[in-house]
């Protein structure tokens, strides 16, 4: 009878030895798939005894089949080892995120003065020149554009009336 490696409890399987290989093959042929106590019997041929296999082959002590079982089976120990592995991984994952013990503070507001830099990279005399320059640019943009230069290829005014079509002549001179 197979035992759980860690708990030493029955795993729900056993090994049966037959006198001949023919009897073993007949067992697999006729008993495999039958029911006993509303449980399906599964028969396999065993490749032979190896030391260390008497307590199951699974990593968790039970059978390898139980480690991959996803459905609930009360007769085989509940959810199987996949559910236990999931819970263990979840617990380990939660331990990675421990509560914050120390909340870091931001940089101080006078960091630039500590580094020896000016407030914005220029001094107050630059402020006045910049303000005058920007004010002058705005005045230039608000003045109407005049076309004093007749040689200019661009004519900003249109001679077409609202209901007339504008035409352009391209003469090669």
From TrEMBL:
Keyword Nucleus listed: yes
Record-level GO cellular component terms: nuclear cap binding complex; nucleus
Subcellular location: Nucleus
Start-end of Polar residues biased regions: 144-161
SUPFAM superfamilies hit by this protein: RNA-binding domain, RBD (SSF54928)
Comp. bias regions, Acidic residues: 162-173
Stretches for region Disordered: 50-80, 97-173
Disulfide bond as UniProt keyword: no
Composition bias, Basic and acidic residues: 64-80, 129-138
InterPro entries: NCBP2 (IPR027157), Nucleotide-bd_a/b_plait_sf (IPR012677), RBD_domain_sf (IPR035979)
GO biological process: mRNA cis splicing, via spliceosome
Keyword annotations of the record: mRNA processing, mRNA splicing, Nucleus, RNA-binding
GO molecular function: RNA cap binding
Family in the record: Belongs to the RRM NCBP2 family.
Protein name as annotated: Nuclear cap-binding protein subunit 2
């Amino acid at each position: 009878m197979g035992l759980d490696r860690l708990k030493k409890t029955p795993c729900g399987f056993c090994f049966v030895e037959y006198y001949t290989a023919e009897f073993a093959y007949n067992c697999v042929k006729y008993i495999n798939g039958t029911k006993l106590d509303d449980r399906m019997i599964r028969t396999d041929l065993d490749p032979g005894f190896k030391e260390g296999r008497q307590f199951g082959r699974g990593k968790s002590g039970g059978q390898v089949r139980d480690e991959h079982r996803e459905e609930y089976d009360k007769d085989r120990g509940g959810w199987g080892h996949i559910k236990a592995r999931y819970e263990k991984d979840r617990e380990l994952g939660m331990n990675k995120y421990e509560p914050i013990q120390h909340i870091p503070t931001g940089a101080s507001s006078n960091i630039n003065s500590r580094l020896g830099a000016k407030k914005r990279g220029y001094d107050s005399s630059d402020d006045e020149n910049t303000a005058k320059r920007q004010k002058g640019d705005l005045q230039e943009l608000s003045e109407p554009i005049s076309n004093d230069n007749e040689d200019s290829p661009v004519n900003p005014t249109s001679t077409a009336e609202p209901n007339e079509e504008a035409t352009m002549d391209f003469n090669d001179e």
